[in-house]
Amino acid sequence: MIRPLRLLAAALCLALVSSVSAQPKVTRIIVAFSPGGPVDLVARAISEQLGRELGRTVVVDYKPGANGAIGAQEVMRAEADGGTLWLTSVGAAAINPVLYEKLPYSMQRDFAPVSLVVNNDELLATSPSYPAKDAAEFVAAAKKRAEPTPMASSGIGSIPHLAIEQLEDATGAKLLHVPYKGAAPAIADVMGGQVAAWFGDVPGMIGLIRAGKLKPLGMAAKKRHPVLPEVRTLEEQGIAGVDTNNWYALFVSARTPPAVVEALNKAVRATLATPAVREKLLSMGADPAASSPQELAAMLKADTEKWGRLIKAKNVKAE
Q: d(Cα 119, Cα 307) in Å, to the nearest integer?
């Protein structure tokens, strides 16, 4: 009996070692944008606490380029053990699949939703010297102009661009879309008066608003922003139909076991419920909001359909 017992004990020890070794020692959050941008700031804001919740180190890994496709493919190639997460904005997840005829990834085939992380409703903003005090006055002035009012965006098919299209449809004002290669040059020209205004994420503008370098006109959302409670929504100003959310969410490889996805979701929920993390996100203008994987899947589906209808109706073509 001794030998079989020893063999059984050895087998159990080997199984335990294999189980432990199968767990990733480091978790990567893949950010498909350059360091210093809003997605990076959110990733770094949650990484330390997420590591505590998971019991392992969490690092932020940058894979920018190809409108998010490089980051997406990095997650697709990785081990499906929960050790590689993709923190992406709505653009790569819900807009690119309808904006581009061919993509090297499919959100439904290649990825499993983990959790929503933050909501980022778009804010209509202009230079402090611009005469309009709110969105209603901005639209009224645009309607009086003989020429279309120029508005900046961070690129064709971006959420700021699509918000402009929604505003034009909602008000009948003539607006001229001026695409830039990123948010920074767009904001610079708004502040300089080269273009009248733009829609952008609050995290990318909150510092400039607090410094008096940008003037908020209205939120393109169903409710006011928690860090800008004095700024009315467009709907409160009589402008219905402009509803944007450049949310950031976490996804993993679709091959990841459901139990691992649930464990990750639990850790993300606990992270976002931590007061220090929540306050840090709010201070940068992001609105923390966890979800179940199922809720994120439903949001992804709804936004893909919503932005797809607008892109097709406006014949928006990627550059």
A: 17
Is it true that 20-120+246-313 and 122-237 share their CATH fold?
Answer: yes
The domain defined by 122-237 carries CATH number 1.10.10.10: no
Check: CB of residue 24 under 8 Å from CB of residue 54.
no
pLDDT in tens, 276-317: 999 999 999 999 999 999 999 999 999 999 999 999 999 999
Structure confidence by residue, pLDDT tens digits, 35-44: 888 899 999 9
Residue 9 clears pLDDT 60, i.e. is over it:
no
Q: What is the 3-state secondary structure (H, E, C) of the chain?
A: CHHHHHHHHHHHHHHHHHHHHHCCCEEEEEECCCCCCHHHHHHHHHHHHHHHHHCCEEEEEECCCHHHHHHHHHHHHCCCCCCEEEEEEHHHHHHHHHHCCCCCCCHHHHEEEEEEEEECCEEEEECCCCCCCCHHHHHHHHHHCCCCEEEEECCCCCHHHHHHHHHHHHHCCCEEEEECCCHHHHHHHHHHCCCCEEEEEHHHCHHHHHCCCCEEEEEECCCCECCECCCCECHHHCCCCCCCCCCEEEEEECCCCHHHHHHHHHHHHHHHHCHHHHHHHHHCCCEECCCCHHHHHHHHHHHHHHHHHHHHHCCCCCC
**C-beta separation of 128 from 215 below 8 A:** yes
Alpha-carbon gap, residue 292 to 277, rounded angstroms = 19
Enumerate the domain spans of the chain.
20-120+246-313, 122-237
pTM, full prediction:
0.88
CATH number for the domain whose boundaries are 20-120+246-313: 3.40.190.150
